Structures are given as structure tokens and as C-alpha cells.
Amino acid sequence: AEHTLVKGMSVSSVLNRDVKQFGKKHMFDANEETCWNSDQGASQWVTLDFPRTVKVSRLHIQFQGGFSSRLCTLEGCRTGEELVKISDLYPEDINALQISFETALDKLKITFENSTDFFGRIVVYHLGVLGERL
Predict the structure, then answer these.
(1) What is the tens place of the pLDDT at every residue in 9-36?
(2) pLDDT tens, position by position, 74-122
(3) Is 119 exposed, middle or buried (0-12, 13-18, 19+ CB in 10 A)?
(4) Of the candidates 49, 66, 112, 133, which lies 20 to 30 Å from 42 by C-alpha distance?
(5) Sign of the dihedral defined by the CA atoms of residues 23, 126, 48, 115, in that order
(6) pLDDT tens-digit series, residues 31-59
(7) Residue 36 counted as domain residue
(8) Contacts of 127 (CB under 8 A, 6+ apart)
(9) What's this model's pTM, rounded to 2 decimal places?
(10) Domain total for the chain?
(11) What CATH number does the domain containing 19 carry?
């Protein structure tokens, strides 16, 4: 069965370094009210680490309108390897991104570029990663 498989995660920045209010954990807390809010900057990112190799099948990202990304770059790798580019995504719905792909990974990096916000901030309410352990 598919389920969220993330073990560890890091993000490029947190607004005003206010981790309690805007930290990365809010992307996974299933709470509609909370979010990860990045600080200003041209390129923001999220890196996900999986406890073991997974075949990622689906990725779902819910942005806040006005703080989304016009270009998302996916990179991934197996343990001990360098990140390699998987694809560039141009979200059609400016508030949400859903993508299906089949890649075996231990790490996934999502880079958010070309933010719709003048200062480059990205706001993500929900990040869902579905797949199966190999």
C-alpha cells in the first residue's frame, strides 16, 4: 500500500526563523491551518530523506495562493550518490502540484523557483509523498 514515507527533512529557510509557527513540520501535520513559510530568496527548497529506498509514485504539494512556485525542479539520488535531476515541473494550478513518477530514491530534493511572491517566499500547507518501500 502507499503511504507517506519520510524520515528526515530539511528546508532552505523559515520565515523570521520562527520554526514554531512556520517550520517544516507543518507540511506533514495534516492541519489545514499551519504551513511551512520560507524566508525571502530566489530559490527555496525542501529535501526529503527516506528511511530506506523507496519507489516514489506520487507527489502532492499544496501552496498558498500568491506564494507558489512557477517552476519546481525535482532531484533525487540513492544513498552515497550525488543528486541527479529527475524533471522540471511547471504547476498548472498555481495553488497545487500533483505529479506521478516512478523512481527509486533514498533522497528527494524539491526546489521552488520563480515564486509568484515578489520577495521569493514560498508557502506550503501540505506536502504528500506516496510510494512503496523496495
Answers:
(1) 999 999 999 999 999 999 988 888 999 9
(2) 999 999 999 999 999 887 767 888 887 788 899 999 999 999 999 999 9
(3) exposed
(4) 49
(5) negative
(6) 889 999 999 998 999 999 988 898 888 88
(7) yes
(8) 27, 28, 36, 46, 59, 60, 61, 62
(9) 0.90
(10) 1
(11) 2.60.120.260
DSSP string, 72-95: EEEEEE-TTS--EEEEEE--SSTT
Is 71 domain-assigned? yes
Provide CB contacts within 8 A for 1, sequence distance 6+: 132
Asked, for residue 3, whether it belongs to a domain, the answer is no
- Residue 18 in any domain: the answer is yes
- Containing 100, the helix (H) or strand (E) segment is strand 96-115
**Cell matching residue 77:** 539520488
